[in-house]
Design goal:
alpha+beta; two-stranded antiparallel sheet; globular
Length: 97
């Protein structure tokens, strides 16, 4: 699933260029979360905790297609592992999930 960064994040101002750190501090659009959930057919868990979790299916090291649920932390983790430039044009850059 390929999406533009502008389809993932809510811009706070008129800027177009963002660093990875600035991107992950933006709010994630609810309709993107819904699309991702439908695409992988897994539910979104907004407040997943790591305490007492013995199941590796939800480890941040597991790719999206093998997860049983996902959270905002999983989206951000995927971005950190996928994006490798210093600056990103939010309206033009695409990322694959």
């Amino acid at each position: 699933m390929k999406v533009k960064l502008s389809d993932i994040f809510v811009k706070r101002d008129d800027r177009s260029l963002y660093s990875i750190q600035e991107l992950v501090n933006l709010d994630i659009k609810a309709d993107f979360v819904e699309r991702l959930s439908q695409h992988f057919q897994i539910p979104y868990r907004p407040n997943r905790t790591k305490e007492h979790n013995l199941c590796y299916a939800n480890s941040p090291l597991i790719r999206f297609e093998y997860k049983t649920t996902f959270s905002e932390a999983d989206i951000i983790n995927h971005l950190y592992h996928t994006l490798n430039q210093k600056k990103y044009h939010i309206d033009m850059e695409e990322i694959t999930f």
